Task: inverse folding
């Protein structure tokens, strides 16, 4: 069964410090991974997807198949980055279809001034 | 273009009462989802509908039923609410796009309290 693990429930850093939110996954197929973000009192929204190899709001994430990881990184955290971050894995729909996301339990990032 | 909308935003129920959470999307997506969000548990899938006319159980379906009324609407029903169903409920929708473009779009959530 597929699984997404985010080992840190809470992460607190100071403004300007580097930040890394960890995500590990378990999946038998070729993984497609995402990071979603939920700012206070807002709906969840896609932050980035691994397949696009993009950098959004200064965040990047690299898929490491050997370590089955997809950690989210930012070199210099900003106060507006404070939010709940979810790692998600695509796959596992019925009949082999590939449209269901499995989410990790989330990491609440707080960036202190 | 409102995206995904949910009603109500807040609801308080007594144990044993029933209610239906409504969700609608105007993006012409085929797939729709219901999640619950609990502290320390993250997002857990309750039910999903891959396309109009189909529904499937997710990770935590017990105590819930769903109806895919048409392509736009996907409702979640609690037949006999229990305190364990106190949660924030999110609806989402998606389209199966070419690889690299998959995204689920979320509604604003319904905060449900069962006393």
Result:
């Amino acid at each position: 069964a597929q699984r997404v693990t985010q080992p840190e429930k809470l992460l607190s850093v100071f403004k300007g410090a580097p930040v890394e939110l960890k995500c590990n996954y378990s999946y038998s197929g070729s993984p497609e991974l995402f990071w979603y973000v939920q700012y206070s009192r807002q709906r969840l929204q896609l932050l980035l997807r691994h397949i696009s190899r993009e950098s959004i709001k200064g965040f990047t994430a690299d898929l490491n198949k050997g370590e089955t990881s997809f950690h989210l990184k930012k070199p210099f955290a900003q106060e507006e980055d404070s939010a709940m971050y979810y790692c998600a894995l695509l796959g596992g729909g019925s009949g082999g279809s590939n449209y269901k996301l499995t989410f990790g339990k989330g990491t609440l990032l707080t960036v202190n001034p | 273009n409102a995206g995904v909308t949910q009603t109500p935003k807040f609801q308080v129920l007594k144990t044993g009462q029933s209610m239906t959470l409504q969700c609608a999307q105007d993006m012409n997506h085929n797939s729709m989802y219901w999640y619950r969000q609990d502290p320390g548990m993250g997002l857990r899938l309750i039910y999903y509908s891959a396309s109009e006319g189909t529904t499937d159980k997710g990770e935590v379906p017990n105590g819930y039923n769903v109806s895919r009324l048409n392509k736009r609407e996907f409702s979640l029903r609690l037949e006999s609410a229990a305190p364990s169903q106190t949660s924030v409920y999110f609806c989402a929708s998606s389209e199966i796009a070419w690889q690299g473009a998959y995204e689920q779009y979320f509604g604003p959530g319904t905060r449900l309290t069962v006393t």
